[in-house]
TrEMBL record, chain A:
This is Vacuolar fusion protein MON1 homolog. Residues 1-113 are annotated as: Disordered. Residues 70-91 have a biased composition (Basic and acidic residues). Plays an important role in membrane trafficking through the secretory apparatus. Residues 291-388 form the FUZ/MON1/HPS1 second Longin domain. Residues 58-69 have a biased composition (Low complexity). Residues 423-542 form the FUZ/MON1/HPS1 third Longin domain. It comes from Bicyclus anynana (Squinting bush brown butterfly). Pfam families: Fuz_longin_1, Fuz_longin_2, Fuz_longin_3.
TrEMBL record, chain B:
This is Vacuolar fusion protein CCZ1 homolog isoform X1. Residues 9-129 form the CCZ1/INTU/HSP4 first Longin domain. The gene is LOC112051697. One of its GO terms (cellular component) is Mon1-Ccz1 complex. Belongs to the CCZ1 family. It holds the Pfam family Intu_longin_3. Transmembrane segments: none annotated.
Length: 553, 450
């Protein structure tokens, strides 16, 4: 047995383990562990009237500003004033908001639309995502050219409005045997996913919500609403140039990283001491900077540490957007950047200002310093250099690089080998109270690139015989289990499925969620023993795998 | 029957090619239930469905199956090209909100709704014929006359019999079975125009001469529509009891007493086991005691009342002897099985090849089973409709928050489900218990993995 913790009784009954062992659990969480599934439920039960007024809650940012005392009355003006939108926009005419379907798809447009949709750049894609304004104007399409999709967007808009106006209802989804179309109306936008993947409706709605949040993160909800209040017909693409790329990357990211599936954040496994040093370096340097809200160090889509202002926490989905921003922006690698960032869960109404930079040329960790102060670049830049220097001196950069390069010496690099349970092929574990996850095979940076390259070629559905499953394939396989576990009407606590290909155990308790893939036709008692050892190992390594403290400035 | 009024919002059939021009939208609607809905409301509903079907053709070659809105679920079925049947049920999209508000709303499985539409169509095709063969001027009437009573008489509640639609077979010891077969052979030799297509005892099937698909439809007609009415009549009417002993024709309902009655015989579209295509037949149904026998006669045959009288004289006494011997055997068997099954766990067995179905819950539609919780049923429906995930052989065990363990096993085309409520069990205990039940109940049927 790999288990060394003596206070935990070893037991062959998974049900009994629950009370004693919840690896990674701690009372003080750096993240807001609200379940994205609960949010989904509340969102989806909203009525038609409630939904149309996408009212933002009171601004957290102005709250912070007033607390700091220097609420310099300047409201967070957006970079682009909406006034100069007016002039540019007069040429755009023609409301696509005809509620009559038959009028909408007159014969001509319909033929064109169908032809374009059958063209090689659009046909046979596993998942389409379309974003349009509630007036039916195309804003984003994952594949193809939005301009040529105006006809399709008109039809989508007409469908949505017919259901709303004539049936006093909200359109949610349409499905055929092999394909689902999911509709989400958020404020002035309509988001649609058309998917042939095995993702459930809930999972797809969450992805659309992320895509919406990505737009909010660039514009803020206040500005988004105001633009469309002023001009219902506005072509939002002119404000979103650059954001398309972010959405593209986000969609790929969501398809492969289980962090989205579980609503959790992946942490970079580090020795407890190293993480403590890093955190101390940040707190000691930044404690004097009053209006700093968050200091976040990330590497390879993994969180290294997060130091926050007392009272305020970040939601995993905001962190995912930051991961996506950093990963998608090559420019951060070359220079220190100063950029406005709206974190929709934290405060959708305004921007935080972020100093974003990589720690050093020889370490791919990226430091984000988020403040409510719009002209704090220089103090933050100085803080960053001090932090980088401290990290180098305390050898933390080496520790980060070791973890990133998955040094073979580290127990977390190949946990299954380290524990010695060959019958387990793959696992993923989420600690619910801290919203953090750990998987047996963390997707490394270069693999991610690789996936992106492969994805660029395709996005097409291919029937290929898989010889060796990659971690992405395992995660795909878990989607169904995940959606059944979180099914709102018939949830499950435990699923054990065994067929000729593999055996999968999905198990949720008050403290954690665990998904394990075993060899095919696994005996139940063997599986129980293996899971038991796995949990003990995670418990033993929890200080390394997870962030167990929630430091503040 | 009360269920349907509460839950079915509407049921309609449309064909867009029937009124291609604007203004002709009403012609596209072949049938609409409930009838009190205004024409405008009908147009709106059908218009939406047409648009949705069209929208999905841009992305998929498969026909549209479902539309979900905040408050309703629409299930689509296209039995023949351009003919669409749609069932609309009130189902809140986020069911979590519904469950927290004390009143637990029962959610109807989409697969149950899909099966409901398929059964309705197959029944229509059996008694009226394929839709495309019906002249346009008749189809509105035909649909009205068939579907109105059909939909009023049926419930689509989540019941185990609706989740898995199968046929209960009656296992007989070999001598009794041979007597049934000999009786059928003798009859078909003496009356070559008559082919026996089914032999049913109570609500269990003993002999089948149809393709499995048609058998299920005929079986459902017998067990869900015809026989419950007969049984009711038999219980009420003292006068008929004497006649019962000798048997009688029960379709047409008044029996066959003179040549005029022959005109009332149902014509049905069926495919017999030896047929290569669906043909039209007269359907003759004869019943003695609890045994019901169905015959088909080619529609080209000249029917004479004398043949039917002589048939009655031939079948009556023989069938009543067979029926009583089966009844004795059933009583004996029932006694044995009560001794055997000391298990209080529910199980369901289903074989996709012959649709054989066996359950510990009462399988008759006359006594709906309340034994299985809706959540559990919905899990079983999920396993049943997702065949791929278990493959040719596999096993799944699911534990619900209220301590139900649902086990599903699949082995080629056979499926076996066990429901166990056990608070302090673990996977291994459940698997052992399932194995025990499987061995007890399904002697000789091989399940892998064990």
């Amino acid at each position: 047995m790999a288990s060394t913790s003596k206070n935990i009784p070893s037991t062959a009954n998974p049900e009994n383990v629950t009370d004693d062992i919840e690896p990674g659990a701690c009372t003080d969480s750096i993240l807001n562990p609200t379940d994205s599934f609960e949010e989904f439920a509340s969102e989806m039960s909203s009525s038609l009237e409630e939904r149309n007024t996408l009212a933002a809650k009171s601004s957290t940012i102005s709250e912070i500003q007033s607390e700091i005392g220097e609420s310099s009355k300047e409201t967070l003006r957006e970079t682009k004033s909406s006034d100069n939108l007016q002039s540019k926009d007069d040429s755009i005419s023609g409301s696509a908001s005809s509620s009559n379907l038959t009028e909408q798809n007159g014969e001509d447009t319909e033929c064109e639309r169908d032809e374009y949709l059958r063209s090689p750049e659009l046909v046979n894609k596993e998942k389409h995502v379309f974003i349009l304004s509630s007036a039916g104007k195309p804003i984003y399409s994952r594949y193809g050219n939005e301009d040529k999709l105006a006809g399709l967007c008109g039809v989508i808009q007409a469908l949505v409005s017919v259901v709303e106006e004539q049936n006093q209802d909200i359109l949610r989804s349409i499905s055929t045997k092999d394909c689902k179309a999911i509709f989400l109306v958020k404020g002035p936008l309509i988001l649609v996913a058309v998917s042939k993947s095995n993702e459930s409706e809930t999972q797809l709605v969450l992805q659309l919500t992320y895509a919406f949040n990505q737009i909010v993160s660039v514009l803020t909800l206040t500005q988004l609403n105001r633009i469309f209040e002023q001009r219902r017909n506005y072509d939002l693409r002119r404000l979103l140039s650059g954001a398309e790329r972010l959405i593209d990357h986000l969609l790929i990211f969501m398809e492969k990283d289980p962090a989205f599936l579980l609503g959790a954040v992946r942490c970079l496994p580090l020795p407890e001491k190293a993480r403590e040093n890093i955190t101390n370096a940040i707190t000691s340097t930044c404690s004097k900077i009053r209006d700093l809200v968050f200091a976040i160090l990330i590497a390879g889509n993994q969180l290294i540490t997060l130091v926050r202002m007392k009272k305020y926490t970040l939601h995993p989905s905001d962190i995912h957007l930051l991961f996506n921003l950093v990963r998608s922006s090559e420019s951060f690698k070359t220079a220190e950047s100063w950029t406005p960032i709206c974190l929709p869960k934290f405060d959708a109404t305004g921007f935080l200002h972020g100093h974003v930079s990589y720690i050093s040329e020889d370490c791919q960790a990226c430091l984000l310093l988020l403040t409510v102060q719009r002209d704090a670049f220089f103090p933050l830049s100085q803080a960053k250099h001090t932090i980088a220097e401290k990290l180098r001196r305390s050898n933390c950069l080496v520790a980060i690089n070791d973890a990133l390069n998955r040094n073979k010496e580290l127990p977390t690099t190949n946990p299954l080998k380290h524990i010695g349970i060959p019958e387990i092929r793959h696992f993923m574990y989420k600690c619910k109270s801290t919203a953090q996850l750990f998987t047996s095979d963390p997707i490394s940076l270069d693999r991610l690139q690789d996936y992106r390259l492969r994805h660029k070629e395709g996005g097409d559905i291919t029937e290929k015989k898989i010889e060796k499953l990659s971690d992405i394939d395992y995660v795909r396989n878990y989607r169904k289990f995940c959606s059944q576990i979180h099914c709102s009407s018939t949830p499950a606590k435990l699923i054990f499925r065994s067929n000729s290909e593999n055996t999968v155990l999905a198990w949720v308790t008050n403290g954690f969620e665990l998904y394990v893939t075993f060899d095919a036709l696994m005996e139940k008692d063997h599986a129980i023993r293996a899971v038991d050892r796995l949990l003990h190992w995670i418990k033993k390594e929890e200080e390394r795998i997870f962030i167990m403290h929630a430091p503040t400035f | 029957m009360i269920d349907i009024k509460n839950k079915v919002n509407s049921f309609f059939i449309f064909n867009s090619t029937f009124g291609p021009k604007e203004g002709d939208e009403l012609k596209r609607i072949l049938f609409y239930h409930p009838s009190q809905v205004t024409q405008d409301a009908r147009k709106i509903q059908v218009g939406l469905c047409e648009a949705v079907v069209k929208f999905m053709t841009t992305f998929s070659t498969e026909p549209c199956e479902a539309l979900q809105t905040q408050s309703k679920r629409y299930i689509f079925y296209q039995p023949e090209k351009d003919y669409w049947m749609v069932l609309v049920v009130r189902i809140p999209y986020a069911t979590k909100a519904a469950t927290t508000s004390n009143e637990k709303k029962e959610v109807i499985e989409p697969s149950v709704m899909q099966d409901f539409l398929m059964s309705a169509y197959k029944m229509f095709r059996m008694f009226i014929g394929p839709m495309k063969d019906i002249p346009t001027e008749d189809i509105y009437n035909n649909c009205e006359q068939f579907f109105t009573p059909y939909i009023m008489s049926r419930s689509i509640a989540n019941d185990i019999n609706n989740v898995i639609q199968g046929i209960s077979y009656l296992p007989l010891e070999k001598n009794s079975f041979f007597r049934v077969v000999c009786f059928i052979d003798l009859l078909e030799i003496n009356y070559p125009d008559f082919k026996c297509v089914s032999f049913v005892y109570n609500d269990k099937l003993i002999w089948n001469g149809l393709t499995t698909d048609d058998m299920l439809t005929l079986y459902q007609y017998l067990v869900q529509t015809l026989l419950p009415k007969q049984v009711e009549k038999e219980i009420q009417g003292g006068a008929v009891t004497a006649a019962q002993r000798h048997g009688r024709f029960i379709s047409p309902p008044e029996g066959i007493r003179n040549a005029d009655d022959l005109q009332k015989l149902h014509k049905v579209y069926l495919m017999r086991e030896e047929d290569t295509e669906t043909k039209q037949y007269y359907l003759v149904i004869y019943r003695t005691l609890s045994a019901t026998v169905c015959f088909t006669v080619d529609v080209t045959t000249n029917l004479s009342i004398d043949t039917f009288r002589s048939l009655d004289a031939f079948i009556g006494p023989q069938l009543s002897t067979i029926a009583s011997s089966i009844s004795e055997q059933c009583a004996l068997h029932a006694l044995q099985s009560t001794q055997l099954s000391n298990t209080d766990h529910s199980f369901i067995y289903f074989n996709r090849l012959n649709l054989a179905y066996k359950t510990s819950a009462p399988s008759s539609s006359l006594t709906p089973s309340t034994a299985i919780k809706p959540e559990v049923l919905s899990i079983i429906a999920g396993i049943h409709s997702d065949r791929k995930s278990l493959g040719n052989y596999g096993e799944i065990i699911i534990k619900t928050p209220d301590e139900y363990w649902v086990t599903g096993k699949s082995s080629n085309d056979r499926e076996f489900y066990v429901i166990i409520q056990e608070k302090n069990a673990n996977l291994k205990d459940i698997a052992d218990e399932v194995r025990r039940i499987c061995e007890d109940q399904m002697k000789g049927i091989f399940f892998y993995p064990m």
